[in-house]
Design a protein that fits this description.
The chain is α+β, with helices and mostly antiparallel strands. The chain folds into 2 domains: 121 residues, D-amino Acid Aminotransferase, Chain A, domain 1 (2-Layer Sandwich), CATH 3.30.470.10; 154 residues, D-amino Acid Aminotransferase, subunit A, domain 2 (D-amino Acid Aminotransferase, Chain A, domain 2, Alpha-Beta Barrel), CATH 3.20.10.10. The chain is built from 7 helices and 17 strands. Strands 8, 9, 10, 11, 12, 13, 14, 15 and 16 form a 9-stranded mixed β-sheet that branches. The longest helix has 15 residues. 46% of the residues are buried. Bound molecules: 4'-deoxy-4'-aminopyridoxal-5'-phosphate (PMP). 4'-deoxy-4'-aminopyridoxal-5'-phosphate binds next to helix 5.
């Protein structure tokens, strides 16, 4: 992913400010200990260029507030309040391109000591331009990482806890240095968990299969969306443990997430998946996914928060 410029305005310490004024001290608790939680949300420019469609905004802010509970963060906003600030911030920046929205709740005091209670919390939000994070047409090559996915009893894995992303980064770098596009991580039990920043689906004999939310995975909003699309399209879905060797014999694999969208996997650990091309079920789901986010599917209009641009 290319390094991106922040859009001109950010939300910081209770107000919208120029992004270059949204700065914290080097002694900030979250910077020392990773005591923050974040979200990642996409806004898609509408075909007429007049608005940004934010995908599943209330679901994202709800998950953010759930993640905040893991670090015992208290803020003067609820999920709806954060969603409203995001809408305001999009209007203020008025981007004429697809954006990625990053809300971040963090322990803001200059405190020594790894603790969660009694430390002031803050909310910050910034926007960056974002096109593809992983390829969506050309199938990617992945490896099963030797790094295990962080376990729920070590750092809560179902939410987006900043410090836990060292785990994702270790797996991601290992894969990239070995010439792969991304890593699949197994959990402590040795079952397939997810990729470094995306959930995973496989297809076996026409059934879509994904790891359960008790497998030390992030409770992905795209994952949940795809399960619903599959139900609506009449594709059988199973949420169950996946063994590593199922990756070697399944018909299709794809990764999904806000950044990844739906990214087909063509090779895993050197084994070609299916015929190495995007599979038919992945393709059907991908077509529906992009039609929805572009606002072309009235049936799923409720997934979009339309933010008109001035
Ligand atoms: N797993 C991890 C580790 C992630 O960072 C992400 C990206 N947020 C996902 C899965 C996908 O989640 P979502 O669909 O909610 O973006």
């Amino acid at each position: 992913m290319p390094r991106s410029e922040l859009l001109p305005y950010a939300f910081f310490e209770g107000q919208i400010v120029p992004s270059d004024q949204a700065k914290v001290s080097i002694a900030t608790h979250a910077l020392q200990y990773g005591t923050g939680v974040f979200g990642g949300i996409r806004g898609y420019l509408t075909a007429d260029g007049q608005a940004i469609n934010v995908f599943r905004l209330p679901d994202h802010t709800r998950r953010l507030m759930q993640s905040a509970r893991f670090i015992r963060a208290t803020l003067p906003y609820d999920a709806d309040g954060v969603a409203q600030i995001i809408v305001e911030l999009i209007k203020r920046n008025a981007p004429r391109f697809d954006v990625y929205i990053r809300p971040f709740i963090y322990k803001a005091d200059l405190e020594l000591g790894p603790k969660l209670r009694g430390i002031r919390d803050e909310l910050a939000i910034y926007l960056i331009p974002l096109q593809e994070y992983l390829p969506v047409t050309k199938p990617i090559r992945v490896m099963v990482s030797s790094w295990r996915r962080v376990e729920d009893n070590i750092i809560p894995s179902r939410g987006k806890v900043s410090g836990a992303y060292v785990n994702s980064a270790l797996a991601h770098d290992q894969a990239e240095e070995a010439g792969f596009d991304d890593a699949i991580m197994l959990n402590a039990e040795g079952k397939v968990a997810e990729a470094s920043g995306a959930n995973i689906f496989i297809v076996r004999n026409g059934t879509l299969i994904t790891s359960p939310i008790t497998a030390d995975i992030l409770e992905g909003i795209t994952r949940r969306t795809i399960i619903q699309y599959a139900h609506d399209l009449g594709i059988p879905v199973e949420e169950r443990e996946i063994d590593r060797t199922e990756l070697y014999i399944c018909d299709e694999i794809f990764l999904c997430g806000t950044g990844a969208q739906i990214s087909p996997v063509g090779v895993v650990d050197g084994r070609t998946v299916g015929n190495g091309e995007i599979g038919p079920i992945t393709k059907r789901l991908q077509e529906l996914f992009f039609a929805v986010v572009r606002g072309e599917e009235p049936r799923y209009q409720h997934f979009l928060t339309r933010v008109p641009l001035e």
